[in-house]
Amino acid sequence: MYEGFELGSFLAGLPLGLAIAGIVLFFSWRKGKKERRYDERFYAIHNWARSFSWVVTTIVILVAWTVVMIIEPVGTAFFVLMTVYMLHMISYIVGAAIASNKH
């Protein structure tokens, strides 16, 4: 820790910030529910956006992995990117299994 850091202020501010964020999220969710923002169209758009984002993230990880393999020999960065890619794919498998059980 450095000299200017006060643990008491941090421990008081963290829960307060989380509480304020929770209150704001609750009221925005409630307002959205009253305005019927969370209908089938909302969920369809979000599902499409999530799948598009997943594909873009996969491509970015693979490009970064290739760049790391070309620039430097097999090292820490290679294994970190490989682990991120594997976790990304495992999360997709788990999500697909959950979604197929629901439908």
UniProtKB/TrEMBL annotation:
Q: Give the subcellular location.
A: Membrane
**InterPro entries per UniProt:** Cation_efflux_TMD_sf, DUF2178_TM
* GO cellular component terms listed in the entry, alphabetical order: membrane
Topologically, how does it sit relative to the membrane?
Multi-pass membrane protein
Query: What are the TM regions of this chain, as residue ranges?
Result: 12-30, 51-71, 77-99
Key words, A-Z: Membrane, Transmembrane, Transmembrane helix
Tell me where it mainly resides.
membrane
The protein here is known as: DUF3796 domain-containing protein
**What organism is listed for this UniProt entry?**
Bhargavaea cecembensis
Origin organism lineage: Bacteria, Bacillati, Bacillota, Bacilli, Bacillales
